[in-house]
Amino acid sequence: MSGARGFVIVTEEGTSKGRRWLAALLAAFALYFALFAWFAPPGVLFSKDPVIVVDYALHAYQVDRALTAFRGSGALWGWDPLVLAGHPAGALEDLTSKGTELFVIGLRALGMHAGVAFNLFIALVMALVPFVGYASARLFGLDRPASVVTVLLWTLLWYFDSFLHWNWWIGMISWSFAAYGVVLFMALLHRALESRQTRWFVALAALAPALAIVHPFSGITLLVPGALVYFRSRKQLSAKHHALIWLVAFVGASTALVWVFPAYRFKHYVTTADSYLNARLEYVFYDLFDLLRNADNTGLPVRTVVRTLCFAAGGIMLWRWRAAADRRALPLASLVLWAAGYAYLAAYTNAGRQTQPYRQIAPAMLAAAIPAAALLRELFSPESLRGLNKTARLLLILAALLILPRFGRTVIYFLPDLLPTHHNSVVAMNEPKPFSSRLFSANVEARDLRDWLLAHAQGQGRIAVRGAQPSHWVLAEYLAATTRLPILGGLEHRNIHHADVHLFRRYRAGNPPGEELQRFFETYAVGWVVLGGEYGSLDYRQEYMELVATVAEHRIYRVRKPPSYFMRGSGRVSEQAMNRVKVEGAGGDDVVLRFHWFEPLACRPNCTVERFTVDGDRVGFIRVPNPPSNFEIYVKY
User: Fold this and answer.
1) Does pLDDT of 330 surpass 60?
2) What is d(CA 51, CA 463) in angstroms, rounded to the nearest whole number?
3) How far apart are CA 238 and CA 14, in angstroms?
4) Which residues pair with 575 in a beta bridge?
């Protein structure tokens, strides 16, 4: 009886612990998805209107053009005459959006609206976070309570670490997936090499191409830690296991076939891309103390209390694992140190600056959260807390009093609308005021402007667009993504030569002196100018443009001199669409169209195209010698 009774007691204790663990896990997931629903409202994510927060507008445009090109030619790239006076859409600038594009193309083939599919990709990336966090912790051998702590830390990092929040909010959704995907990859690699079970190699082979196609820079993150872990296990692996590892590397690298050939073919159009996320060593200090030096390098604001906790606690636990010869130390320590070191040191090299190295701090903190969770689970277990003497308990209370206000200040910044405080109350030093860092689609004002332009501006030249600060480029990207209007504008720091056509990149305040403004309008067939926000110097150039309407906060000017798409010759551009421009009634010995040249362009019927040099434009225009009366410029793949 006593033995049976003892057996029942042990089972009840185990059941009780299991229930507490399950309740804690459900609570952690509930917290994550409650914050998910707040920051990414279901009404936004499950609508046909694409999310357009900051860079999302550009990505929505990229996906739209990739879908159009694919449906017309089976390729993911082409020539878009409607943006930047013609540029190679999908060939150079969207290598980190190919996964999103293929996702939308696949769902569109199944009948889903493209806007819904685009938003669904965002929702899927965000929804996977707690599942991947828990799985990664378990794969690294953490017990269930410590794995729950990992989910909690990932939740706090995802929503309340400034850079991780900035990532998914500003539109770096592909990198957001890669940031946690590489942690899962290292967890699977560790388990595969330690257990040498085929199922883990199969899982790696499935994850590797997904990571590589969604964001190729994940390979940078995995290069050193993956090589170190593999090198350590090389003598214990059979020929079969070596072959499986190289197969994983091959299937991951093979996804480059999606984009590498057009990227290489047109690389001569690419310029440097080092405008953002180039933090250096001094940013370690600024990050540690929540100081904003340059938002272009770190995003804004700077809130790192949870990150700092993960790095400190994780570092202690990794040191202990190393001392105990725990084989988990190498994969996690190498991932944290390599990614963090790259984040703060790679900007000292030109090659490193092209990769926006500070982005690597994201996988570093998520990886550090796993050993940190193991330590925190140990320190805050009931047994450990009961074992503290009075002095240790007092120190713990004092430490909490120091840490909790900083954590509260962090949370307040990201949830200003939920608190009865004025936004100015949490602003200190060189920081922006708190703002709603939630996802959203186009507002009523942008839609009204879109409708006005569709009704009044079609067929009357290009439209130069600049919206209101701070994200003044979003409006042009939104219009490009959701209309077939010819747009000049958008992100100024485009790293291709075609950005020479950007008025506000080319001239300070978009206001060249004297008659140079009119020459710009003529060169690029500008018929309209749309300006948002505060009045600037360009608003006062009434000698070249007249105000014809004000839609919400946007002032719409018509260029006084009617635009023409013909630099030489005459005719009428009857159609502009992805991969083609149609001309009717052409006249003259030759025709020079004010569209950017592109090598794969051809002409039909019975005509040819060649590049025409234009002063101040590195790309040049399109010349058609001896044109027929009606002809079509098209992309010949």
Assistant:
1) yes
2) 23
3) 39
4) 582
509-548 pLDDT, tens per residue?
A: 888 988 999 999 999 999 999 999 999 999 999 999 999 9
Environment class of residue 298 by beta-carbon count within 10 Å: exposed (0-12), middle (13-18) or buried (19+)? buried
Confidence check: pLDDT of 178 > 80? yes
Measured CA to CA, the distance from residue 176 to residue 183 in angstroms comes to: 12
Residue 555 phi, psi dihedral angles, 5° rounding = -100, 130
Contact (CB, 8 A) for 152 and 74: no
pLDDT over 70 at 13, yes or no: no
Cα(175)–Cα(484) distance, integer angstroms: 29
Q: Take residue 412 and report the two structure tokens written for it.
A: 């307040």
How many Cβ atoms are within 10 Å of 141's Cβ, its own excluded? Answer: 17
Cα angle 105, 110, 114 (rounded to 5 degrees) comes to 45
Give 600: exposed, middle or buried? Use CB within 10 Å, 0-12, 13-18, 19+: middle
Q: What is the pLDDT of residue 419?
A: 63
What is the three-class DSSP state of 66?
helix
> Per the structure block, which two tokens stand in for 139?
């794969």
Q: What is the pLDDT of residue 620?
A: 97
Q: Report whether 343 contacts 358 (CB < 8 A).
A: yes
Which DSSP helix (H) or strand (E) runs through 585? Answer: strand 580-596
39 is written with which tokens?
A: 């920051």
Q: How confident is the model at residue 427 (pLDDT cuts 50, 70, 90)?
A: low
Q: Say how many CA atoms lie within 13 Å of 457 toward its Cβ.
A: 28
User: Which residue, chain included where needed, has tokens 């009434």?
Assistant: 542
Handedness of CA 173, 176, 181, 184 (dihedral sign): negative
Do residues 131 and 110 lie in contact, with contact meaning Cβ atoms separated by under 8 Å? no
pLDDT at 2: 37
